Amino acid sequence: xxxxxxxxxxxxxxxxxxxxxxxxxxxxxxxxxxxxxxxxxxxxxxxxxxxxxxxxxxxxxxxxxxxxxxxxxxxxxxxxxxxxxxxxxxxxxxxxxxxxxxxxxxxxxxxxxxxxxxxxxxxxxxxxxxxxxxxxxxxxxxxxxxxxxxxxxxxxxxxxxxxxxxxxxxxxxxxxxxxxxxxxxxxxxxxxxxxxxxxxxxxxxxxxxxxxxxxxxxxxxxxxxxxxxxxxxxxxxxxxxxxxxxxxxxxxxxxxxxxxxxxxxxxxxxxxxxxxxxxxxxxxxxxxxxxxxxxxxxxxxxxxxxxxxxxxxxxxxxxxxxxxxxxxxxxxxxxxxxxxxxxxxxxxxxxxxxxxxxxxxxxxxxxxxx
Amino acid sequence: xxxxxxxxxxxxxxxxxxxxxxxxxxxxxxxxxxxxxxxxxxxxxxxxxxxxxxxxxxxxxxxxxxxxxxxxxxxxxxxxxxxxxxxxxxxxxxxxxxxxxxxxxxxxxxxxxxxxxxxxxxxxxxxxxxxxxxxxxxxxxxxxxxxxxxxxxxxxxxxxxxxxxxxxxxxxxxxxxxxxxxxxxxxxxxxxxxxxxxxxxxxxxxxxxxxxxxxxxxxxxxxxxxxxxxxxxxxxxxxxxxxxxxxxxxxxxxxxxxxxxxxxxxxxxxxxx
Lengths: 370, 273
Prior knowledge:
- The complex is a heterodimer.
- Chain A is an alpha/beta fold.
- Chain A has helices at residues 4-8, 34-38, 130-141, 161-169, 185-197, 213-220, 224-237, 254-267, 285-290, 355-363, and strands at 41-42, 44-45, 51-52, 89-90, 97-101, 147-151, 174-178, 202-208, 243-248, 274-279, 297-298, 317-321, 324-326, 338-340, 350-351.
- Chain B has a single domain, classed as Purple Acid Phosphatase, chain A, domain 2, CATH 3.60.21.
- Helices cover 36% and strands 18% of the residues of chain B.
- Chain B has helices at 18-30, 49-58, 67-73, 86-102, 105-113, 148-158, 222-231, 236-244, 256-267; strands at residues 6-11, 36-38, 118-122, 125-129, 162-165, 172-175, 181-184, 199-207, 210-218.
- Classes of the chains: A alpha/beta, B alpha/beta.
- The interface between A and B is large, with 41 and 41 residues.
């Protein structure tokens, strides 16, 4: 149930400021491809937000929580669709988080499920310089951003990363997303010292793809589990408590995965990690891994009154690469994902035409730490 | 008192801990602070939700609604604390069910009707009281997790000069570049993960135009509280916290900065104070 206070926040603040004077999506310089939506498969939505192959005509009565969404009560509306196939548009409510792809698409690994197809030879998005990052940081602070996420590729491949982190951390909280394979002793000591002395929080997010070596290495390559575990142990020895993210395959049970993840980390001598689960996205190299072509899903079946503008992270964040400003860190290679050169240009609503939008909506996921 | 200063007390997170509430109200009185506000979350964690709700009403302490109060007031399924960790949710649920079973209908009605915000003028400054943030009742505003720019934006949107909040359980304050202030009063019902059993609350103080926020620590004997918690069959982890001053649960959302400060202090006890 939307709380009164939340409801007030749905309308953009009056007057000037970021997000004010939003343009209609139809006026956008780079509208998403209508073809993406028209060829997409509508899915039905249940009260929990999980997808279902058929509309669910009512859920068992239960206590209402703020996250609940009205169930679909019958066939999806067949009214006039807008130019994007009737999918909802997500307004940018406020800019809380800016994702900065500091390493571009360059990575020391080439994971088989990478949604941005990063790798050692991938330079579609170039690495960002310290001054380029500082410019983006200032641009976001000017509209009151809360925190920054540094990503790639693998951020530690950027030779200026330490300066970038120190510059940014003086102004705002920073999270670095890493595969955990490049933690030299010197770097761990630098991280430990900076984490203790900085005014803002410096979080590390280390990605794992299975609660076991074989499963993880199948995605990331032989030896990666062992290298990442060594990195995590080095961090923990310095008292650091990284957030360890696990990808959750479609249909995998959350409680089972969490239990297995905790057990696997304990077996490696790791007790301090915080866990976060992330869904897998049918984007980039993951499409190749999945093999057979699949029809993209669409949010066009979502009744207008079931749309909750607080549910998706693109209501409160944007991503930047060397190529410009994007709606989110997932869609940096997708048609329409790029929203402009500046954050101001990217403050307009975003039509949720992508298959990944369905994944975010259905899972309620956020790339952010909480 | 002939104190020319303007002073008010703010405390958050009572967490059904009557001993903490009594000790804090006594301390506020002993210091001669003429007015006090509560920043919400009357229930949860401790053994005395009904007694705390009654005490706040009897003492006429204006109280803003916390997420806990909203949930209990509306008979929701959980406290909506915003925990993301499975263990945190487990412990939160245990205490939620205890509080839910203990509160009277009169208290539930009172909790339901609490305002989500309170405003007053203090030494010429606009003060806004909320539980989490002005935009979300269960938003965590940790000191290390907020840029100045973000806090300035919250003050702008809320049109306030002093933003006072709670919800994290750790107290902190910041003077913003604009001259405005953010004060997180912390919680009184659970120690501040600093190895000091007892309660922390905030005092706003103004003298000749100069504004300051300070924090006071109030010690109380945790043993009678621990005994009541045992009798109420509340988790042993909660009892350990009131006796040691260190959190054992429900800090999955705490940023690494605050976490490390506590961990480091715990390893070198002389550094705690």
